[in-house]
Protein backbone atom coordinates (compact mmCIF):
# COMPACT_ATOMS: atom_id res chain seq x y z
CA UNK A 1 0.00 0.00 0.00
CA UNK A 2 1.36 3.46 -0.85
CA UNK A 3 2.26 5.63 2.13
CA UNK A 4 2.31 9.32 2.91
CA UNK A 5 6.07 9.24 2.23
CA UNK A 6 5.33 8.09 -1.32
CA UNK A 7 2.92 11.01 -1.72
CA UNK A 8 5.50 13.45 -0.35
CA UNK A 9 8.08 12.16 -2.83
CA UNK A 10 5.70 12.72 -5.75
CA UNK A 11 4.84 16.16 -4.34
CA UNK A 12 8.53 17.07 -4.64
CA UNK A 13 9.61 15.36 -7.86
CA UNK A 14 6.45 15.95 -9.92
CA UNK A 15 5.10 19.24 -8.59
CA UNK A 16 8.26 20.83 -7.16
CA UNK A 17 6.89 21.45 -3.64
CA UNK A 18 8.97 20.61 -0.60
CA UNK A 19 6.13 20.20 1.91
CA UNK A 20 2.37 19.91 2.24
CA UNK A 21 0.28 23.00 2.81
CA UNK A 22 -1.68 23.11 6.07
CA UNK A 23 -4.48 20.56 6.04
CA UNK A 24 -3.36 18.64 2.95
CA UNK A 25 -1.49 15.83 4.67
CA UNK A 26 -4.42 14.71 6.85
CA UNK A 27 -6.75 14.55 3.84
CA UNK A 28 -4.22 12.64 1.71
CA UNK A 29 -3.61 10.15 4.55
CA UNK A 30 -7.34 9.47 4.84
CA UNK A 31 -7.67 8.87 1.10
CA UNK A 32 -4.64 6.57 1.06
CA UNK A 33 -6.24 4.64 3.95
CA UNK A 34 -9.28 4.01 1.75
CA UNK A 35 -11.72 6.31 3.56
CA UNK A 36 -14.48 8.33 1.95
CA UNK A 37 -13.71 12.01 2.52
CA UNK A 38 -15.55 15.33 2.61
CA UNK A 39 -13.00 18.17 2.66
CA UNK A 40 -13.89 21.83 3.15
CA UNK A 41 -10.74 23.83 2.44
CA UNK A 42 -10.28 27.51 1.57
CA UNK A 43 -9.64 28.43 -2.03
CA UNK A 44 -5.89 28.36 -2.53
CA UNK A 45 -5.33 25.66 0.11
CA UNK A 46 -4.42 23.09 -2.54
CA UNK A 47 -7.54 20.91 -2.75
CA UNK A 48 -6.56 19.48 -6.15
CA UNK A 49 -3.39 17.88 -4.80
CA UNK A 50 -5.49 16.02 -2.22
CA UNK A 51 -6.79 13.73 -4.99
CA UNK A 52 -3.94 14.12 -7.51
CA UNK A 53 -1.30 12.74 -5.15
CA UNK A 54 -3.25 9.57 -4.24
CA UNK A 55 -4.01 9.09 -7.95
CA UNK A 56 -0.29 9.13 -8.80
CA UNK A 57 0.91 6.78 -6.05
CA UNK A 58 -1.88 4.19 -6.41
CA UNK A 59 -2.95 1.82 -9.16
CA UNK A 60 -6.08 2.53 -11.17
CA UNK A 61 -7.90 5.51 -12.61
CA UNK A 62 -9.13 8.56 -10.69
CA UNK A 63 -12.26 10.27 -12.01
CA UNK A 64 -12.51 13.99 -11.28
CA UNK A 65 -15.94 15.60 -11.61
CA UNK A 66 -15.57 19.26 -12.59
CA UNK A 67 -18.36 21.72 -13.42
CA UNK A 68 -16.79 23.67 -16.29
CA UNK A 69 -14.95 22.78 -19.47
CA UNK A 70 -12.47 25.65 -19.06
CA UNK A 71 -11.50 24.38 -15.61
CA UNK A 72 -10.94 20.87 -16.92
CA UNK A 73 -8.87 22.13 -19.84
CA UNK A 74 -6.55 24.18 -17.65
CA UNK A 75 -6.10 21.52 -14.98
CA UNK A 76 -5.34 18.85 -17.57
CA UNK A 77 -2.82 21.20 -19.23
CA UNK A 78 -1.14 21.87 -15.88
CA UNK A 79 -0.90 18.15 -15.08
CA UNK A 80 0.49 17.27 -18.50
CA UNK A 81 3.01 20.08 -18.13
CA UNK A 82 4.18 18.32 -14.96
CA UNK A 83 4.51 15.01 -16.81
CA UNK A 84 1.25 13.47 -15.53
CA UNK A 85 -0.97 11.31 -17.76
CA UNK A 86 -4.28 13.21 -17.55
CA UNK A 87 -7.17 13.78 -19.92
CA UNK A 88 -10.73 15.04 -20.14
CA UNK A 89 -13.93 13.96 -21.83
CA UNK A 90 -16.19 16.87 -22.68
CA UNK A 91 -17.99 18.53 -25.57
CA UNK A 92 -14.93 20.65 -26.42
CA UNK A 93 -12.86 17.59 -27.37
CA UNK A 94 -12.34 16.82 -31.03
CA UNK A 95 -12.73 13.19 -32.05
CA UNK A 96 -8.96 12.64 -32.13
CA UNK A 97 -8.51 13.82 -28.55
CA UNK A 98 -11.50 11.78 -27.31
CA UNK A 99 -10.12 8.66 -29.01
CA UNK A 100 -6.69 9.26 -27.49
CA UNK A 101 -8.17 9.58 -23.99
CA UNK A 102 -10.29 6.43 -24.36
CA UNK A 103 -7.30 4.48 -25.68
CA UNK A 104 -5.19 5.56 -22.70
CA UNK A 105 -7.96 4.34 -20.39
CA UNK A 106 -8.16 0.96 -22.12
CA UNK A 107 -4.37 0.61 -21.93
CA UNK A 108 -4.36 1.56 -18.25
CA UNK A 109 -1.90 4.45 -18.73
CA UNK A 110 -4.28 7.32 -17.88
CA UNK A 111 -4.11 8.34 -14.22
CA UNK A 112 -6.68 11.17 -14.01
CA UNK A 113 -9.81 11.68 -16.10
CA UNK A 114 -11.74 14.97 -15.81
CA UNK A 115 -15.41 14.83 -16.75
CA UNK A 116 -18.56 16.91 -16.29
CA UNK A 117 -21.36 15.61 -14.05
CA UNK A 118 -23.72 15.51 -17.06
CA UNK A 119 -21.29 13.38 -19.09
CA UNK A 120 -20.56 11.05 -16.19
CA UNK A 121 -24.28 10.50 -15.61
CA UNK A 122 -24.66 8.87 -19.02
CA UNK A 123 -25.02 5.11 -18.65
CA UNK A 124 -22.65 4.32 -21.50
CA UNK A 125 -19.72 6.25 -20.02
CA UNK A 126 -20.38 5.02 -16.49
CA UNK A 127 -20.50 1.41 -17.69
CA UNK A 128 -17.30 1.91 -19.73
CA UNK A 129 -15.52 3.33 -16.67
CA UNK A 130 -16.83 0.58 -14.39
CA UNK A 131 -15.25 -2.03 -16.71
CA UNK A 132 -11.93 -0.15 -16.69
CA UNK A 133 -11.74 -0.15 -12.88
CA UNK A 134 -11.99 3.20 -11.12
CA UNK A 135 -10.03 3.55 -7.88
CA UNK A 136 -11.27 6.99 -6.75
CA UNK A 137 -14.13 9.38 -7.58
CA UNK A 138 -13.22 12.99 -6.70
CA UNK A 139 -16.06 15.55 -6.83
CA UNK A 140 -14.84 19.14 -7.06
CA UNK A 141 -17.09 22.12 -6.17
CA UNK A 142 -19.15 19.66 -4.12
CA UNK A 143 -21.42 22.38 -2.69
CA UNK A 144 -23.23 22.13 -6.06
CA UNK A 145 -24.63 18.80 -4.78
CA UNK A 146 -26.68 20.42 -2.05
CA UNK A 147 -29.95 22.31 -2.31
CA UNK A 148 -28.63 24.43 0.58
CA UNK A 149 -25.47 25.31 -1.35
CA UNK A 150 -25.33 28.72 -3.01
CA UNK A 151 -24.78 27.17 -6.45
CA UNK A 152 -27.01 24.05 -6.48
CA UNK A 153 -26.97 22.10 -9.76
CA UNK A 154 -29.43 19.24 -10.37
CA UNK A 155 -26.87 17.23 -12.36
CA UNK A 156 -24.60 17.15 -9.29
CA UNK A 157 -27.44 15.65 -7.22
CA UNK A 158 -27.30 12.52 -9.41
CA UNK A 159 -23.69 11.74 -8.54
CA UNK A 160 -24.67 9.48 -5.64
CA UNK A 161 -26.30 7.13 -8.15
CA UNK A 162 -23.22 7.41 -10.42
CA UNK A 163 -21.02 6.36 -7.50
CA UNK A 164 -23.14 3.22 -7.05
CA UNK A 165 -23.01 2.46 -10.77
CA UNK A 166 -19.20 2.63 -10.61
CA UNK A 167 -19.26 -0.07 -7.94
CA UNK A 168 -19.49 2.02 -4.76
CA UNK A 169 -16.04 3.38 -5.54
CA UNK A 170 -14.12 5.30 -2.87
CA UNK A 171 -15.31 8.91 -3.08
CA UNK A 172 -14.05 12.27 -1.94
CA UNK A 173 -15.97 15.55 -2.15
CA UNK A 174 -14.18 18.90 -2.05
CA UNK A 175 -15.41 22.46 -1.68
CA UNK A 176 -14.33 25.83 -0.31
CA UNK A 177 -17.82 26.93 0.78
CA UNK A 178 -20.12 24.69 2.80
CA UNK A 179 -21.78 25.57 6.09
CA UNK A 180 -23.09 22.89 8.47
CA UNK A 181 -26.41 22.34 6.67
CA UNK A 182 -24.68 22.09 3.30
CA UNK A 183 -22.08 19.62 4.59
CA UNK A 184 -24.79 17.39 6.05
CA UNK A 185 -26.74 17.45 2.78
CA UNK A 186 -23.62 16.61 0.73
CA UNK A 187 -22.84 13.66 2.99
CA UNK A 188 -26.38 12.26 2.74
CA UNK A 189 -26.55 12.60 -1.04
CA UNK A 190 -23.11 11.20 -1.93
CA UNK A 191 -22.08 8.69 0.71
CA UNK A 192 -23.72 5.46 1.98
CA UNK A 193 -21.96 6.01 5.32
CA UNK A 194 -20.74 9.13 7.09
CA UNK A 195 -17.50 10.25 5.38
CA UNK A 196 -14.37 11.39 7.17
CA UNK A 197 -14.94 15.14 7.27
CA UNK A 198 -12.22 17.79 7.31
CA UNK A 199 -13.11 21.43 7.81
CA UNK A 200 -9.84 23.27 7.59
CA UNK A 201 -11.30 26.70 8.20
CA UNK A 202 -12.36 29.63 6.10
CA UNK A 203 -9.67 32.20 6.79
CA UNK A 204 -7.71 33.59 3.85
CA UNK A 205 -5.18 35.77 5.69
CA UNK A 206 -3.44 36.89 2.49
CA UNK A 207 -6.61 38.67 1.27
CA UNK A 208 -7.18 42.28 2.24
CA UNK A 209 -10.91 42.86 2.69
CA UNK A 210 -12.48 46.25 1.97
CA UNK A 211 -16.03 47.47 1.37
CA UNK A 212 -17.35 50.89 0.54
CA UNK A 213 -20.74 52.54 -0.08
CA UNK A 214 -21.22 53.05 -3.81
CA UNK A 215 -21.03 56.70 -4.86
CA UNK A 216 -19.31 56.79 -8.27
CA UNK A 217 -18.41 53.21 -9.15
CA UNK A 218 -16.07 53.90 -12.12
CA UNK A 219 -14.15 56.51 -10.12
CA UNK A 220 -13.96 54.29 -7.04
CA UNK A 221 -12.84 51.29 -9.06
CA UNK A 222 -10.27 53.32 -10.97
CA UNK A 223 -8.71 54.45 -7.69
CA UNK A 224 -8.61 50.82 -6.54
CA UNK A 225 -7.15 49.52 -9.81
CA UNK A 226 -4.51 52.23 -9.78
CA UNK A 227 -2.68 50.21 -7.12
CA UNK A 228 -2.50 47.20 -9.45
CA UNK A 229 -1.36 48.59 -12.80
CA UNK A 230 0.88 45.68 -13.85
CA UNK A 231 -1.24 42.96 -12.26
CA UNK A 232 -4.21 40.86 -13.31
CA UNK A 233 -7.58 40.80 -11.60
CA UNK A 234 -11.35 40.55 -11.89
CA UNK A 235 -14.11 43.15 -11.54
CA UNK A 236 -17.57 41.63 -11.11
CA UNK A 237 -20.73 43.36 -12.31
CA UNK A 238 -24.37 42.40 -11.77
CA UNK A 239 -25.53 42.55 -15.41
CA UNK A 240 -24.19 42.11 -18.94
CA UNK A 241 -24.93 45.72 -19.76
CA UNK A 242 -22.97 46.88 -16.72
CA UNK A 243 -20.04 44.72 -17.83
CA UNK A 244 -19.94 46.32 -21.28
CA UNK A 245 -20.19 49.87 -19.97
CA UNK A 246 -17.60 49.44 -17.21
CA UNK A 247 -15.09 47.68 -19.47
CA UNK A 248 -15.36 50.56 -21.93
CA UNK A 249 -15.02 53.16 -19.17
CA UNK A 250 -11.97 51.49 -17.66
CA UNK A 251 -10.47 51.19 -21.14
CA UNK A 252 -10.91 54.94 -21.59
CA UNK A 253 -9.05 55.40 -18.29
CA UNK A 254 -6.04 53.49 -19.62
CA UNK A 255 -6.64 49.99 -18.25
CA UNK A 256 -6.53 46.88 -20.38
CA UNK A 257 -10.08 45.88 -19.50
CA UNK A 258 -11.83 43.01 -21.32
CA UNK A 259 -15.54 42.08 -21.00
CA UNK A 260 -16.81 38.59 -20.24
CA UNK A 261 -20.45 37.49 -20.01
CA UNK A 262 -22.70 34.78 -21.43
CA UNK A 263 -24.13 37.11 -24.08
CA UNK A 264 -20.83 37.49 -25.92
CA UNK A 265 -20.00 35.22 -28.84
CA UNK A 266 -18.15 32.10 -27.72
CA UNK A 267 -15.06 33.03 -29.76
CA UNK A 268 -14.88 36.47 -28.10
CA UNK A 269 -15.31 35.01 -24.61
CA UNK A 270 -12.63 32.42 -25.25
CA UNK A 271 -10.18 34.96 -26.71
CA UNK A 272 -10.66 37.32 -23.75
CA UNK A 273 -10.25 34.50 -21.27
CA UNK A 274 -7.07 33.26 -22.99
CA UNK A 275 -5.62 36.79 -22.89
CA UNK A 276 -6.39 37.03 -19.19
CA UNK A 277 -4.74 33.67 -18.51
CA UNK A 278 -1.66 34.18 -20.67
CA UNK A 279 -0.75 37.83 -20.11
CA UNK A 280 -0.11 40.16 -17.18
CA UNK A 281 -1.86 43.44 -16.42
CA UNK A 282 -5.31 42.39 -17.69
CA UNK A 283 -8.55 43.39 -15.94
CA UNK A 284 -11.43 41.01 -16.65
CA UNK A 285 -14.76 42.81 -16.23
CA UNK A 286 -17.32 40.05 -15.90
CA UNK A 287 -20.54 38.64 -14.58
CA UNK A 288 -20.30 35.69 -12.22
CA UNK A 289 -20.28 33.48 -15.34
CA UNK A 290 -16.52 34.05 -15.14
CA UNK A 291 -14.39 32.65 -12.36
CA UNK A 292 -15.32 29.16 -11.27
CA UNK A 293 -13.67 27.74 -14.37
CA UNK A 294 -10.52 29.82 -14.07
CA UNK A 295 -7.79 28.17 -12.03
CA UNK A 296 -5.40 31.14 -12.21
CA UNK A 297 -3.38 31.32 -8.97
CA UNK A 298 -1.87 34.80 -9.43
CA UNK A 299 -5.04 36.93 -9.57
CA UNK A 300 -3.94 39.89 -7.49
CA UNK A 301 -7.31 41.58 -6.96
CA UNK A 302 -11.06 41.02 -7.11
CA UNK A 303 -13.53 43.90 -7.02
CA UNK A 304 -17.31 43.94 -6.98
CA UNK A 305 -19.03 46.85 -8.70
CA UNK A 306 -22.26 45.62 -7.10
CA UNK A 307 -23.07 43.39 -4.15
CA UNK A 308 -22.79 39.61 -4.60
CA UNK A 309 -25.89 37.47 -4.07
CA UNK A 310 -24.96 35.90 -0.74
CA UNK A 311 -22.14 35.88 1.77
CA UNK A 312 -21.07 32.45 0.42
CA UNK A 313 -20.95 33.84 -3.11
CA UNK A 314 -18.90 36.78 -1.84
CA UNK A 315 -16.47 34.42 -0.10
CA UNK A 316 -16.09 32.24 -3.18
CA UNK A 317 -15.67 35.17 -5.59
CA UNK A 318 -13.04 37.04 -3.55
CA UNK A 319 -11.38 33.65 -3.08
CA UNK A 320 -10.33 33.71 -6.72
CA UNK A 321 -7.66 36.23 -5.72
CA UNK A 322 -4.36 35.21 -4.21
CA UNK A 323 -4.66 31.46 -4.67
CA UNK A 324 -0.87 31.29 -4.74
CA UNK A 325 -0.75 32.49 -1.13
CA UNK A 326 0.77 35.88 -1.98
CA UNK A 327 -1.02 39.09 -0.86
CA UNK A 328 -4.12 40.07 -2.84
CA UNK A 329 -6.61 42.91 -2.63
CA UNK A 330 -10.43 43.00 -2.63
CA UNK A 331 -13.04 45.76 -2.76
CA UNK A 332 -16.83 45.50 -2.70
CA UNK A 333 -19.07 48.46 -3.52
CA UNK A 334 -22.59 48.32 -2.14
CA UNK A 335 -25.75 50.39 -2.01
CA UNK A 336 -29.42 50.27 -1.14
CA UNK A 337 -30.38 49.60 -4.75
CA UNK A 338 -28.26 46.44 -4.67
CA UNK A 339 -29.95 45.34 -1.46
CA UNK A 340 -33.42 46.03 -2.79
CA UNK A 341 -32.78 44.19 -6.07
CA UNK A 342 -31.42 41.08 -4.36
CA UNK A 343 -34.35 40.85 -1.97
CA UNK A 344 -36.73 41.21 -4.89
CA UNK A 345 -34.94 38.42 -6.76
CA UNK A 346 -35.32 36.10 -3.79
CA UNK A 347 -39.00 36.99 -3.29
CA UNK A 348 -39.86 36.44 -6.95
CA UNK A 349 -37.91 33.20 -7.38
CA UNK A 350 -39.68 29.85 -7.73
CA UNK A 351 -37.67 28.34 -4.87
CA UNK A 352 -39.48 26.68 -1.93
CA UNK A 353 -40.14 28.94 1.06
CA UNK A 354 -37.54 27.13 3.15
CA UNK A 355 -34.86 27.81 0.52
CA UNK A 356 -35.97 31.46 0.30
CA UNK A 357 -35.68 31.77 4.07
CA UNK A 358 -32.06 30.61 3.95
CA UNK A 359 -31.29 32.90 1.00
CA UNK A 360 -32.62 35.88 2.96
CA UNK A 361 -30.46 34.87 5.93
CA UNK A 362 -27.36 34.59 3.77
CA UNK A 363 -27.94 37.93 2.12
CA UNK A 364 -28.67 39.62 5.47
CA UNK A 365 -25.30 38.32 6.67
CA UNK A 366 -23.64 39.99 3.69
CA UNK A 367 -25.44 43.28 4.43
CA UNK A 368 -24.23 43.07 8.03
CA UNK A 369 -20.67 42.50 6.78
CA UNK A 370 -20.90 45.60 4.57
CA UNK A 371 -21.96 47.72 7.54
CA UNK A 372 -19.76 45.97 10.12
CA UNK A 373 -18.46 48.14 12.99
CA UNK A 374 -15.42 45.91 13.60
CA UNK A 375 -12.79 43.89 11.74
CA UNK A 376 -14.17 42.54 8.45
CA UNK A 377 -12.38 39.23 8.87
CA UNK A 378 -13.81 38.71 12.34
CA UNK A 379 -17.33 39.35 11.04
CA UNK A 380 -16.89 37.10 7.99
CA UNK A 381 -15.40 34.21 9.94
CA UNK A 382 -18.05 34.52 12.65
CA UNK A 383 -20.68 33.76 10.02
CA UNK A 384 -18.87 30.48 9.28
CA UNK A 385 -18.66 29.69 13.00
CA UNK A 386 -15.03 30.68 13.56
CA UNK A 387 -13.43 33.17 15.92
CA UNK A 388 -10.33 35.27 15.31
CA UNK A 389 -8.44 38.27 16.54
CA UNK A 390 -8.66 41.54 14.54
CA UNK A 391 -6.70 40.94 11.34
CA UNK A 392 -4.95 44.31 11.26
CA UNK A 393 -5.14 44.76 7.48
CA UNK A 394 -8.77 45.06 6.40
CA UNK A 395 -10.14 48.53 5.72
CA UNK A 396 -11.75 48.78 9.17
CA UNK A 397 -8.62 47.70 11.04
CA UNK A 398 -6.40 50.02 8.99
CA UNK A 399 -8.63 53.07 9.07
CA UNK A 400 -10.61 52.45 12.19
CA UNK A 401 -14.21 53.35 12.86
CA UNK A 402 -15.97 55.54 15.34
CA UNK A 403 -19.06 54.17 17.06
CA UNK A 404 -21.59 56.58 18.52
CA UNK A 405 -24.95 56.54 20.26
CA UNK A 406 -27.22 56.97 17.25
CA UNK A 407 -30.52 56.57 19.05
CA UNK A 408 -31.59 60.15 18.27
CA UNK A 409 -30.65 59.91 14.57
CA UNK A 410 -32.37 56.53 14.27
CA UNK A 411 -35.54 57.94 15.84
CA UNK A 412 -35.46 60.77 13.27
CA UNK A 413 -35.31 58.24 10.45
CA UNK A 414 -38.06 56.06 11.93
CA UNK A 415 -40.23 59.08 12.66
CA UNK A 416 -39.97 60.31 9.06
CA UNK A 417 -40.90 56.81 7.82
CA UNK A 418 -43.85 56.60 10.19
CA UNK A 419 -45.17 60.13 9.52
CA UNK A 420 -45.17 59.49 5.75
CA UNK A 421 -47.23 56.33 6.17
CA UNK A 422 -44.41 53.83 5.52
CA UNK A 423 -44.92 54.41 1.79
CA UNK A 424 -41.59 55.89 0.64
CA UNK A 425 -38.03 54.88 -0.07
CA UNK A 426 -34.71 56.27 1.07
CA UNK A 427 -34.37 59.34 -1.15
CA UNK A 428 -37.71 60.80 -0.11
CA UNK A 429 -36.94 60.14 3.58
CA UNK A 430 -33.50 61.77 3.23
CA UNK A 431 -35.03 64.82 1.52
CA UNK A 432 -37.41 65.26 4.46
CA UNK A 433 -34.64 64.91 7.03
CA UNK A 434 -32.36 67.50 5.44
CA UNK A 435 -35.21 69.87 4.56
CA UNK A 436 -34.94 69.56 0.78
CA UNK A 437 -38.14 70.96 -0.75
CA UNK A 438 -38.36 68.66 -3.74
CA UNK A 439 -41.40 68.77 -6.01
CA UNK A 440 -42.70 65.55 -4.47
CA UNK A 441 -42.14 66.77 -0.90
CA UNK A 442 -44.11 69.97 -1.57
CA UNK A 443 -46.88 68.22 -3.51
CA UNK A 444 -47.50 65.77 -0.67
CA UNK A 445 -47.25 68.44 2.01
CA UNK A 446 -44.35 66.69 3.69
CA UNK A 447 -42.56 70.02 4.12
CA UNK A 448 -45.03 70.67 6.96
CA UNK A 449 -44.12 67.54 8.94
CA UNK A 450 -42.44 67.94 12.32
CA UNK A 451 -39.51 65.89 11.04
CA UNK A 452 -38.92 68.13 8.00
CA UNK A 453 -35.40 69.55 8.27
CA UNK A 454 -34.55 68.02 11.67
CA UNK A 455 -31.38 66.54 10.18
CA UNK A 456 -29.97 69.60 8.42
CA UNK A 457 -26.73 69.21 10.34
CA UNK A 458 -25.80 66.15 8.27
CA UNK A 459 -25.22 65.73 4.54
CA UNK A 460 -27.47 63.52 2.46
CA UNK A 461 -24.76 60.88 2.10
CA UNK A 462 -24.45 60.63 5.89
CA UNK A 463 -28.19 59.99 6.20
CA UNK A 464 -28.06 57.40 3.41
CA UNK A 465 -25.30 55.57 5.28
CA UNK A 466 -27.27 55.66 8.55
CA UNK A 467 -30.36 54.29 6.80
CA UNK A 468 -28.31 51.39 5.45
CA UNK A 469 -27.11 50.59 8.97
CA UNK A 470 -30.60 50.88 10.40
CA UNK A 471 -31.65 48.40 7.72
CA UNK A 472 -28.69 46.10 8.44
CA UNK A 473 -29.61 46.20 12.13
CA UNK A 474 -33.13 44.93 11.43
CA UNK A 475 -34.95 48.11 12.55
CA UNK A 476 -36.65 48.54 9.18
CA UNK A 477 -37.47 46.23 6.31
CA UNK A 478 -37.81 46.99 2.63
CA UNK A 479 -41.15 46.40 0.94
CA UNK A 480 -39.87 45.11 -2.38
CA UNK A 481 -43.40 44.93 -3.78
CA UNK A 482 -44.02 48.57 -2.83
CA UNK A 483 -41.25 50.27 -4.87
CA UNK A 484 -38.74 50.13 -2.02
CA UNK A 485 -40.89 51.63 0.72
CA UNK A 486 -39.57 51.26 4.26
CA UNK A 487 -41.55 49.44 6.95
CA UNK A 488 -40.72 49.70 10.65
CA UNK A 489 -40.07 46.36 12.36
CA UNK A 490 -41.01 45.40 15.90
CA UNK A 491 -37.51 46.19 17.09
CA UNK A 492 -37.56 49.50 15.21
CA UNK A 493 -40.80 50.40 16.96
CA UNK A 494 -39.11 49.77 20.30
CA UNK A 495 -36.35 52.22 19.36
CA UNK A 496 -38.83 54.79 18.10
CA UNK A 497 -40.71 54.64 21.42
CA UNK A 498 -37.53 54.94 23.46
CA UNK A 499 -37.44 51.40 24.83
CA UNK A 500 -34.13 50.53 23.14
CA UNK A 501 -30.96 52.42 22.20
CA UNK A 502 -28.90 52.13 19.04
CA UNK A 503 -25.14 52.30 18.41
CA UNK A 504 -24.06 52.89 14.83
CA UNK A 505 -20.84 53.39 12.92
CA UNK A 506 -19.60 56.73 11.70
CA UNK A 507 -17.94 56.81 8.28
CA UNK A 508 -14.87 54.61 7.89
CA UNK A 509 -11.72 56.67 8.18
CA UNK A 510 -8.98 56.59 5.58
CA UNK A 511 -6.06 54.31 6.53
CA UNK A 512 -3.50 56.11 8.61
CA UNK A 513 -0.24 57.03 6.86
CA UNK A 514 1.92 55.54 9.59
CA UNK A 515 5.68 55.10 9.56
CA UNK A 516 5.07 51.35 9.51
CA UNK A 517 2.90 51.66 6.37
CA UNK A 518 5.46 53.89 4.63
CA UNK A 519 8.26 51.49 5.51
CA UNK A 520 6.26 48.54 4.13
CA UNK A 521 5.62 50.45 0.89
CA UNK A 522 9.32 51.25 0.54
CA UNK A 523 10.24 47.60 1.03
CA UNK A 524 7.68 46.58 -1.59
CA UNK A 525 9.16 49.05 -4.06
CA UNK A 526 12.61 47.61 -3.51
CA UNK A 527 11.54 43.93 -3.40
CA UNK A 528 11.23 41.23 -6.07
CA UNK A 529 8.37 42.99 -7.87
CA UNK A 530 10.72 45.79 -8.94
CA UNK A 531 13.54 43.47 -10.04
CA UNK A 532 14.28 43.54 -13.82
CA UNK A 533 14.64 39.75 -13.74
CA UNK A 534 10.99 39.38 -12.74
CA UNK A 535 9.94 41.46 -15.72
CA UNK A 536 12.10 39.30 -17.99
CA UNK A 537 10.67 36.09 -16.53
CA UNK A 538 7.14 37.40 -17.04
CA UNK A 539 7.92 38.11 -20.70
CA UNK A 540 9.38 34.61 -21.08
CA UNK A 541 6.32 33.08 -19.41
CA UNK A 542 3.92 34.97 -21.69
CA UNK A 543 5.79 33.83 -24.81
CA UNK A 544 5.92 30.19 -23.71
CA UNK A 545 2.24 30.20 -22.70
CA UNK A 546 1.18 31.58 -26.09
CA UNK A 547 3.42 29.14 -27.95
CA UNK A 548 1.92 26.20 -26.07
CA UNK A 549 -1.65 27.55 -25.91
CA UNK A 550 -1.87 27.19 -22.13
CA UNK A 551 -2.46 29.61 -19.22
CA UNK A 552 0.64 31.40 -17.99
CA UNK A 553 0.54 29.75 -14.55
CA UNK A 554 0.82 26.33 -16.23
CA UNK A 555 4.33 27.35 -17.30
CA UNK A 556 5.21 28.71 -13.86
CA UNK A 557 3.41 30.72 -11.21
CA UNK A 558 4.20 34.13 -9.75
CA UNK A 559 5.40 32.44 -6.58
CA UNK A 560 7.83 30.32 -8.61
CA UNK A 561 9.17 33.37 -10.46
CA UNK A 562 9.63 35.33 -7.23
CA UNK A 563 11.53 32.38 -5.70
CA UNK A 564 13.76 32.27 -8.78
CA UNK A 565 14.40 36.03 -8.52
CA UNK A 566 15.34 35.73 -4.86
CA UNK A 567 17.55 32.64 -5.26
CA UNK A 568 19.17 33.52 -8.63
CA UNK A 569 20.00 29.83 -9.42
CA UNK A 570 23.01 29.38 -11.69
CA UNK A 571 22.54 25.72 -12.69
CA UNK A 572 19.81 23.15 -13.17
CA UNK A 573 20.31 21.63 -9.75
CA UNK A 574 19.76 24.95 -7.99
CA UNK A 575 16.81 25.76 -10.26
CA UNK A 576 15.20 22.42 -9.40
CA UNK A 577 15.21 23.43 -5.74
CA UNK A 578 12.98 26.44 -6.45
CA UNK A 579 9.32 26.36 -5.46
CA UNK A 580 7.11 24.67 -8.06
CA UNK A 581 9.89 23.46 -10.36
CA UNK A 582 9.37 19.71 -10.74
CA UNK A 583 11.32 17.26 -12.88
CA UNK A 584 9.24 17.73 -16.06
CA UNK A 585 9.33 21.52 -15.91
CA UNK A 586 13.03 21.51 -15.21
CA UNK A 587 13.64 19.46 -18.35
CA UNK A 588 11.23 21.54 -20.41
CA UNK A 589 12.09 25.09 -19.39
CA UNK A 590 15.30 24.91 -17.37
CA UNK A 591 17.82 26.09 -19.95
CA UNK A 592 15.65 29.02 -21.10
CA UNK A 593 15.15 30.16 -17.52
CA UNK A 594 18.88 29.99 -16.78
CA UNK A 595 19.60 31.95 -19.96
CA UNK A 596 17.10 34.61 -18.91
CA UNK A 597 18.79 34.87 -15.49
CA UNK A 598 22.20 35.33 -17.10
CA UNK A 599 20.91 37.99 -19.50
CA UNK A 600 19.22 39.94 -16.70
CA UNK A 601 22.45 39.97 -14.71
UniProtKB/TrEMBL annotation:
Catalytic activity, EC: 5.6.2.4
Keyword line: ATP-binding, DNA damage, DNA recombination, DNA repair, DNA-binding, Helicase, Hydrolase, Isomerase, Metal-binding, Nucleotide-binding, Zinc
Domain Helicase ATP-binding, first and last residues per copy: 28-196
Gene Ontology BP term (one): DNA repair
GO cellular component, one term: cytoplasm
Reactions the enzyme catalyzes: Couples ATP hydrolysis with the unwinding of duplex DNA by translocating in the 3'-5' direction
SUPFAM superfamilies: HRDC-like (SSF47819), P-loop containing nucleoside triphosphate hydrolases (SSF52540), Winged helix' DNA-binding domain (SSF46785)
Name of the molecule in the record: DNA helicase RecQ
Domain spans labelled Helicase C-terminal: 220-366
Keyword Hydrolase: yes
Family: Belongs to the helicase family. RecQ subfamily.
PROSITE patterns for the chain: HELICASE_ATP_BIND_1, HELICASE_CTER, HRDC
HRDC domain boundaries: 527-601
Source domain of life: Bacteria
Keyword hit for Chaperone: no
SMART domains: DEXDc, HELICc, HRDC, RQC
Cofactor needs: Mg(2+); Zn(2+)
Example of a GO MF term: metal ion binding
EC supergroup of this enzyme: isomerase
